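Q: What would this chain look like folded?
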Amino acid sequence: MEELKFFSDYLASNYGRKLYRVPLDLALGCPNRENRFGPGCVFCAENGSRARHLRRNLDLAGQVKSGIDYIRGRYPGADPAIAYFQAFTSTYAPVGELRKLYREALAQAAFKVVMIGTRPDALPQETVEFLAELGREYEVWVELGVQSCCDETLRLIRRGHDFAAVEDAVRRLDAAGIRCAAHLIAGLPGETREEFVAGARKIAKLPFRAVKLHPLLILRGTALAAEDFPVKVRGLNEYEYAAWIDGFLRELPEGTLLMRLTAEADPATVIAPHWWMSKGEFLEFFRRRFAEHPSEEAFAAVRTGDGSPTLYHPEFRQHFHSLAGAATEAEKKFVAAARLPERLRRNAVVRLLDVGYGLGATAAAAIRCAEQLRCGKVEIITQEFDLRVFAAARRVYPADALEYRMSDALETTGVFQSEFATVTLLTGDARTTIAQIRDPFDVIFQDGFSPDCNPELWSYDWVRKLSTLLKRDGVCVSYCSAFPYRGALLRTGLVVGESEPFGRRRGGTVAAWEETLLPLPLPEKERGILLCSTAGVAYRDPGLKSPREAIFHRRERTVARLRARGVPKWYKPGQKGAKE
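A: My prediction, written as structure tokens:
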């Protein structure tokens, strides 16, 4: 497939206007819950994907009226012409009961299209023949719950059928003249992107006319969310999911319709993933991505809230800067938090260590501060491991921008100079290149990716090394407010405070040897959390050379040992704590 064709556009073209779905619940339950595994599939919510606006125990006539009222209230002039039998398994009943329920529901409005969500193991031949009967009066579509094309995955998620059941069901439906869509979930436990894309090649060989795709949602109260579930699942973010479905869709025949590419649930029930893009923003992003055929290694460019750019890093699964505003974050949480203007007015030269160059936003903010004051000079040493960032910066900034010129010079010569600044680049693992530095700093910008994905630059051992390079009147500032990082700073002997919040409820972190250098003190409750609970246990990296996973595992073992001693997960006044 090289061109995206959406189901909604197909219907609008066929019927001359956009059609809207009226979700219906036949209250038929699910064979997987009643006959096999009790709770059913590991990802399934208790309500079986029942539409949120439907009240319990509402009869079919009431459901139709409620659905039509909801649609017309939200979209004045809309045509609610699709009967969507969505919840649980909408063919899980004897055919006589199905005929009665479907006829009752369809008699309530002038429906033109009937959509039926079901499972491949709930379609006996007599049911298929009944659906063919409906097909002579309505345009009938069956959304067949495939979920995965991999039998091993189907067993792990307790699906209760194999892929052979899918092949049999779609062929019988197609032979009866019934249009079929395959419903699949990306990011299921244990399934790789390569396996998911390989599944598309299996789907392409079957008579499916449409697909319905969405990322796995980990919902509260499901088996998938339980601590004892055998596979750790984190969920796909927008960029990862886009890459998965991009590869999947390109394996499908041209003209395959797309019923859906996103998922929705009550936000209060979603544990992961938490997307920053709205449904509309994601669809717009994916359309662009699909048309551009991007390299899998490419950083995705994003315009932040203040208009300045940032990028998404696929390895760390994070953006380089706050989406509230990359430039504003650099100004508020770094330049202002370090009181750089005051330092420049007092000193001829301010020495600054920039841990994590990235796109150069924080270094550029420091240079602009000196340029605007036209006094003093910033002497910056910046550390960067990923050399792709320099070309990436030139893609997102205009050629006359400071970030563009600085990135170009650093990539070419390793040095950038201007009237009020000198920037020297150290490439490689910052834990190694730090050994090349001898003279102390007035300011340290701690700006790596966050501790939960890049613990190497937030450990107690790294913080202790930085503290040896910090002048007595110097400050170390960061956007990060993670408890393990602040716990590490306190255990190093530094005093710790906060900067003003921006982009999130909590402020950034400011550490120094002198308390008078802190913009805001830490709340006493937070000090308790950091020093008297396992939340504040620091990452450890003795020798500054441990692999990432070893750092994670070392902290997990420490937390488990302290919990066994009775140290609480979270601090409450009066509790004894851990000083490790």
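The chain has two domains: 5-276, 326-531.
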